[in-house]
Amino acid sequence: MRKRWIALIVVASLLLVAVGGAYWFGRSLFHMPTARGVDSVNAEVGGTRLLGVFAHPDDEQTVNGLFWRAKTQDGAYTAMITATRGEAGHQVPQVARQEDLGDVRKAEALRNSFNLGVDEHEVWDYPDGGVPDVPEDEIVDRLVKAMKRIKPDVVLAFWPETGATGHLDHMKMGELTEKAIAQIVEEGGAYAGPHHVLYSISPAVALSMFGGETGEFVAENQPDPEFAMAAETGKKMEGWEIHASQRDYLQSAYYLPAWLVYLLWDQEFYNVRDLATDPIE
Ligand SMILES: [Zn+2]
User: Fold this and answer.
1) What span, in angstroms and rounded, lies between the C-alpha atoms of 238 and 271?
2) Which of 10, 76, 169, 277 could hold 131 in an S-S bridge, CB 3.0 to 4.6 Å?
């Protein structure tokens, strides 16, 4: 009888070590060693008005921790701009006629930002997958106009060289966001532009392991993040329910259920550009 107990304890301990080890290893794939953990990156840079500039509905899913905490902890005014309605997206699962997808995804984006407490959200109708073909000035002027109205002191943008995922729409929107900020500074009006730009950084090890060639490209061409903060994975799970046409996206991309991905990927990473010492030329 005693032997059986000892065997049971040994087996249970081994299992525990195996599960713990797998968790530790899995989690290390989604962590960035240069990043210092903080409560709120927005608070860290003194943000009171935060604007995020995105390319597609659901892009905000990767930075929802930043927005949720900026609103609920820092009391910041939060705003989002999404350049396209995501009409070219793949539905996982299919919830609508494909020709209605732009309308559906626009609604999903607006509902998700509402769920994050975002104060205002504009979803524009530039072509999904065709942002680089739109005349630059048109988007830059529109961004300038929006920023002058919203007056963000912190802007969240895609890193122009990688766009966080290597998507050309993301890269272009990152580039045009920087150009819009430079134009505002040059015009020298009453609103002098944001004092910080935050770039969302993707977990490099996981990306190069699971993201194929594009993942490797992104991992090698993005800057190191200075800050890490809680990803508010509960809000992300709610977000995928709201983005019903994209609900199974993580599962289809990583072959893992969303809850398991977020058990490991539980932080958001940000590179910070202080425009007072490092202005956009
Ligand atoms: Zn996107």
Assistant:
1) 26
2) 169
Mean pLDDT across the stretch 234-254? 94
**Domain 31-274, second-level architecture:** 3-Layer(aba) Sandwich (3.40)
Write phi, then psi, for 201 (nearest 5 degrees): -110, 135
* Predicted local distance difference test score (pLDDT) of residue 281: 85
Tell me the C-alpha distance between 236 and 242, whole Å: 10
Cβ neighbors of 150 (< 8 A, separation 6 or more) are 49, 51, 79, 120
Structural domain boundaries in the chain:
31-274
Give me the residues near ligand 1 (ion), CB cutoff below 5 Å. 55-56, 59
- What is the Å distance from ligand 1's center to 14 Cα? 42
Residues 33, 225: Cα–Cα separation, whole Å: 9
Report d(CA 216, CA 27) in Å as an integer: 19
d(CA 204, CA 216): 8
d(CA 268, CA 231): 5
Whole-number Å distance, alpha carbon 54 to ligand 1 midpoint, is 7
Which of the residue ranges 10-14, 47-51, 55-59, 113-117 would you say has the lowest mean pLDDT? 10-14
Cα of 156 from ligand 1 centre, angstroms: 14
Neighbours of 161 (CB within 10 A): 15
